[in-house]
Write a structure and sequence with these properties.
Helix content: 40-55%
Number of domains: 1
Number of strands: 5
Strand content: 25-35%
Order of helices and strands: HEEHEEEH
Length: about 110
Amino acid sequence: MNITTRVEIERAIVKRIVRSAFAAGYSVTVHDGDAISLVRSRSLSGVMAAVMTTDEDTLIFRDKETEARIGQVSLVYGNCGWDVISDHTDSKAMESMLADATRYAEMVEFQYC
């Protein structure tokens, strides 16, 4: 797989995560491994502009109404693409939110591996 394809796959997975988070009523904070680059956003374009500026990001999800922390997902770029999700909070809310991205990642894995 070439680098362009890998990056496209990683971006597609991140977009699925963010869209699911917004659909669930969450805001997204982006930590780029060095600093927080975006705080409690509800903008897909804003989040997509903030991610992938370093080798890893952590997306932190909060309920937009109560500000309660829902969980987080760790993303590591530069491997195979489909495996961009390296870790996440283990909860029903997070599993549900990540379901679409996980299905897509599994489909891409079988396509390219």
